[in-house]
Amino acid sequence: MKELTFDDYLLNFNYNERKEMKIQIPELLELLIENKVQFIDVRFKEEFTLWNFSFSKNIPLNELPKRLTELDKSKLIVTACPHYDRAIMGRILLVEHGFNSRYLTNGLLGLADYLRGDNANKLFKQLQK
């Protein structure tokens, strides 16, 4: 995929892109199970160290421009933070650099809430296969 400028991205922004830039928790988890996604937590190292998901990779937003080589261009890259503000910024950077990227709309707090009890058990078993 060709790199593009932020201006070009905005000039071509439409309703389809608005829809395609987001990902919901169930779809994210399905893609994780299928090993089709790289889940990037863009929080600061201190935040990540205190709590994180075992299937996430921490690349803080302020380090992302220099760490693009750590990402797999063959996979969908999903960015996440507690809500979604930093995740959106990270996603835009990735799209500008030719990555297929979306951001988690429910954020990490929504994901933590979703992955309790039976949902956590089910995902754990599926990721162990």
Q: How much is the average pLDDT?
A: 94
What is the fold named in CATH at topology level? Answer: Oxidized Rhodanese, domain 1
Strand order of the largest sheet: 1-5-4-2-3
The computed structural class is: alpha/beta
Distance between the amino and carboxyl termini: 32 Å
Count of domain modules: 1
Care to describe what's here?
The structure is a single chain. The protein has 129 residues and is α/β, with parallel strands linked by helices. It has one domain (6-123): Rhodanese-like domain (Oxidized Rhodanese, domain 1), CATH 3.40.250.10. The protein has seven helices and five strands. The chain has helices at 6-11, 15-20, 25-33, 45-50, 85-96, 107-114, 118-128; strands at residues 22-23, 37-41, 56-58, 76-80, 101-104. The protein has a five-stranded parallel sheet, sandwiched between helices. The radius of gyration is 15 Å and the shape is globular.
Give descriptors for this structure.
globular; 45% helix; Oxidized Rhodanese, domain 1; 129 residues; alpha/beta; five-stranded parallel beta sheet
Question: How would you briefly describe this protein structure?
Answer:
The chain has helices at 6-11, 15-20, 25-33, 45-50, 85-96, 107-114, 118-128, and strands at 22-23, 37-41, 56-58, 76-80, 101-104. By secondary structure, it is of the alpha/beta class.
